[in-house]
Amino acid sequence: MARTKNEELHKTRKKQIVAAATKCFIAKGIHSSSMQEICKTGNISPGALYRYYPSKQAIIEAIAAQEHAQNLELIDYLRGVKNPVRGLQDAMPDILDTLLDKDFARLMIEISTEASRNQNVHEVFQKVEDQFKSNLIEIFRTSQIAGHIGKNTDIEGAVFMILALLDGITARAAASAVPSKTELTKSTGSVISALFG
Amino acid sequence: MARTKNEELHKTRKKQIVAAATKCFIAKGIHSSSMQEICKTGNISPGALYRYYPSKQAIIEAIAAQEHAQNLELIDYLRGVKNPVRGLQDAMPDILDTLLDKDFARLMIEISTEASRNQNVHEVFQKVEDQFKSNLIEIFRTSQIAGHIGKNTDIEGAVFMILALLDGITARAAASAVPSKTELTKSTGSVISALFG
């Protein structure tokens, strides 16, 4: 019991640190956020911070791991449904809940910027991205073989377009007003249908 | 004659400065690029720089003006064609030539990041964006009245989706490999058809 409690405490501390780092990253950029500032923002002692995350890179890897876990939830869901094109359309409200969150959207912009100048950050997120993409491609190829998607559809191209569209919606959510979740669910749904025609 | 030559010279100098600034912005981020560094990168004397652009904000406004001019070219073209949905599809290879340019794509990411923290930069680009969006909406609404677009199509929503998709393609072009221009022209074409169905 004591051990479980301790594990819970570690988890909570880690979450607090990642939340404080995210706040800093959004406010100042990843490059300009120091470990000291992350401590100050989260009211965390340097000892506690370095115990859980020995470097900013380690925090960034934790953020990437969170993204990976979220991607896997969608992948698991799509693997479990009969028609994953329909499944993706049905999952859109949940996906949009994440993407339209202003803090998430702004964090994604900061990560893109940092990744464009920092090879380590680029690699960490590229790995998550590549995994997600190849899982999606595999799911939709299987669906194509099962006859749910047109024989001539370029699955890889369609997955690229859907991911690009979701990136664009996220970027716009960070900066300005976007259509409602209901409208976006409808329009992304028709784009998904068109791409997997 | 002398005056024309002088004007040409001014234009060339301004272009050189904007090119040097762009190079700095991509390498270090907009926030971290100083006027001194822009001088150094472009081999420009501070006197010459301040004569043309009294501040970094003035350079950013020049970049926004360039973007506005490029948008207007597309708007003029779409206003001149009979069916602008088809016109936009036909213009995709040219549009993609710009968006898939790695330097352009990386500059756009830097601008998004800077705009998320700097209200002045946000406003300058938001204005260009709002103008472009409202021009597109007007063109496609006219086309809808002419019967080229389904009566029930939400024009504003469709324009949002197309701009988001182009943003997403740009962001991906900055970071990693993207499908070929031919493939992207085809798939954006089918998305445009679906949205304006």
Poorly predicted residue ranges of chain A: none
- Major sheet attributes of chain A: none
Helix content of chain A: over 70%
Derived from helix and strand composition plus strand pairing, the structural class of chain A reads: mainly alpha
Q: For the record, give the distance between the C-alpha atoms at the N and C termini of chain A, rounded to a whole number.
A: 54 Å
Give a summary of the structure in a few sentences:
The structure is a homodimer of 197-residue chains. Chain A is an all-alpha fold.
Structural features:
homodimer, 197 residues, mainly alpha, Tetracycline Repressor, domain 2, 0% strand
Describe the protein's topology.
2 copies of one chain form a homodimer.
Chain A lengths: L1 H27 L6 H8 L3 H7 L3 H25 L3 H16 L2 H16 L1 H27 L9 H21 L5 H15 L2
